[in-house]
Design brief:
The chain folds into 2 domains: 3-105, no CATH class; 125-168, no CATH class. It is α+β, with helices and mostly antiparallel strands and 173 residues long. The protein has helices at 8-25, 47-62, 108-121, 164-168, and strands at residues 68-75, 78-89, 94-95, 142-145, 154-157. The chain contains 4 helices and 5 strands. Helix 1 (8-25) crosses helix 3. It is flat. The chain has a 3-stranded antiparallel sheet with strand order 1-2-3. Strands 4-5 form a two-stranded antiparallel sheet. Helix content is 31%, strand content 17%.
């Protein structure tokens, strides 16, 4: 998918989800240097398709949308892709390394998004299902509307229900 069709939030969420996956799938990793990368085909994955990760990340680095990234893919407990690209400190020309420590904020977003997508893949809901289906408090709830006066808030009943898609794209208000 071209860079123009993806947004920075999606990339950041993907990178954070990948980092979370690293922490949960391969918890025994003690140091970046200790990671053994196996042949992807040995666990049913494609080397050629995994190489697309580097191409994708490099597009964002080249477009100055991210400074760099560390990516890891594991399957069946085996690491099949592990790479550091771009800059740890772009201004000082310090390259990204496998052991770069990232400051991460708002970690619940990628965790909730991954969990919801796992349930979606199991067919448990549709992306356009209203969240009131599971959280009845959200049925016909009121929302604030803009007013000309800051000291007066007007509320109205929602025009359309908040959906799972809204939650996943962080547009639910």
């Amino acid at each position: 998918m071209p860079v123009a069709l993806m947004n920075r939030r999606s990339v950041c969420l993907g990178i954070m989800a990948a980092l979370f996956a690293l922490m949960s799938v391969v918890p025994s990793l003690r140091a970046a240097e200790d990671v053994t990368v196996v042949d992807p085909e040995s666990v049913g994955m494609s080397s050629e398709r995994l190489q697309r990760i580097n191409t994708f990340i490099n597009e964002y680095i080249d477009a100055n949308q991210i400074a760099g990234a560390v990516t890891l893919v594991a399957r069946k407990g085996k690491v099949v892709h592990y790479d550091a690209q771009g800059w740890r400190d772009k201004e000082n020309g310090v390259a990204m390394t496998h052991d770069t420590i990232f400051e991460m904020m708002s970690m619940t977003k990628p965790i909730v998004s991954v969990a919801l997508m796992m349930l979606f893949e199991e067919g448990r809901f549709l992306l356009d299902d209203p969240i009131a289906k599971w959280l009845p408090e959200y049925k016909n709830h009121t929302v604030r509307v803009n007013t000309e006066r800051a000291d007066r808030a007007n509320t109205v009943t929602e025009v359309r229900p908040v959906t799972v898609r809204h939650v996943l794209t962080h547009t639910s208000g």
